[in-house]
Amino acid sequence: MGFGTEAGWGADRETSFAIMEAFANAGGNFLDTANLYKLGTSEKFIGEFINPRDRDYFVIATKYSLKDNTTNPNASGNNRKNMMRSVELSLRRLQTDFIDVLYLHIWDDLTPIDEVLRGIDDLIRQGKVNYAAISDTPAWIVSKGNTLAELMGWSQFIALQVEYSLIQRTPERDLIPMARHFGMTVTPWAPLAGGALTGKYLRGGQGRVKPESNRRDENSIRITQEVMAVADRLGVEPSHVALQWTRQQGFECIPIVGATRVDQLEENLKSVDLVLSPDDLKKLDEASAIDLGFPGKFFREDGVRQNSYGGFYDRIIPRS
């Protein structure tokens, strides 16, 4: 999202290339972007970087839905017309014949989900897309879509991208149990809550998260302080703890880490060397616990867990 300097922030071409080079040298090969990021500049930079390299080594994910042409009334939404138009433009910017993972970026509350799935399935059959995925969409819609796809023989959604972090755990109410049921990989955006979980704001640092944001409210500060305490005890950075927490949730989870400087990427990559102990996970879970609401909270009541459903919810979200 930060490749390009449109809107007054982000990484220029040279810095973006240096970030991707450092990522590739570290063994990284999964790049996540979108048609709208930096008005298309992100896709252009990625395409220019990968074009002289081994395309098959990289897994490129991009998204469609959000408007990328304000003069065209058809250049937005989940509909098939916009999907086909957007994918063709993304292929040109990315300088590739195919997109590995195509996400529906955000639900428009208008297009029938079967239209979306049939459209992506057609793109997959044409060889322009390898896998279907979905982002920022209610669990019941994703469930309906994957069930329809199974019945119709279409390609199902294989990944779910939602905001998920120690500060934002509400997807545990239904989105993540749904993803686990369908075997979908979760690819959280903002796993560091816009940098709040690095502790930089508590240390007086500056960033794009405004003081009035809920990422910097009393509850978020308390969670961040616990992250910093665990990090201090382990001798690592708070970002390592926050990122590794997402990777140790008991389901397939690949946090999407944004970087506008090489040193940010290099620091975040160190999280793969960390393993949080059960005690560390418990402290973090307790500090960031949310009210699951009904029926999740009801399922956790001792009497219900012991006498009724046999611990189903504990198996879906083991520690919450």
Summarize the structure.
By secondary structure, the chain is α/β, with parallel strands linked by helices.
Commentary on this structure:
With 320 residues, this protein is an alpha/beta fold. It has 2 domains: 282 residues, NADP-dependent oxidoreductase domain (TIM Barrel, Alpha-Beta Barrel); 31 residues, no CATH class. 42% of the residues lie in helices and 9% in strands. The protein has 13 helices and 6 strands. The protein has a 6-stranded parallel sheet, with helices on one face. The longest helix is centred in the last third of the chain and has 17 residues. The chain is globular and about 50 Å long. The model has no long low-confidence stretch (mean pLDDT 94).
List descriptors.
320 residues, alpha/beta, 2 domains, six-stranded parallel sheet, 9% strand, oxidoreductase activity, Oxidoreductase, AKR_Detox_Biosynth, NAD(P)_OxRdtase_dom_sf
Question: Could you give the distance between the termini?
Answer: 30 Å
Number of strands: 6
User: What is the highest CATH level, the class of the largest domain?
Assistant: Alpha Beta
Number of helical runs?
Answer: 13
Sheet with most strands: 6 strands, parallel
Proportion of strand residues: 5-15%
Number of separate domains: 2
- At CATH level 3, the topology of the largest domain is TIM Barrel
Radius of gyration: 20 Å
Chart the SSEs and their pairings:
Blueprint: H1 13-25, E1 30-32, H2 41-50, E2 59-64, H3 80-94, E3 99-104, H4 113-125, E4 129-135, H5 139-152, E5 157-161, H6 175-182, E6 185-186, H7 218-234, H8 238-247, H9 262-269, H10 278-288, H11 296-299, H12 302-307, H13 312-316
Parallel strand pairs: 1-2, 2-3, 3-4, 4-5, 5-6
GO cellular component, one term: cytosol
InterPro entries: AKR_Detox_Biosynth, NAD(P)_OxRdtase_dom_sf, NADP_OxRdtase_dom
Protein name: Oxidoreductase
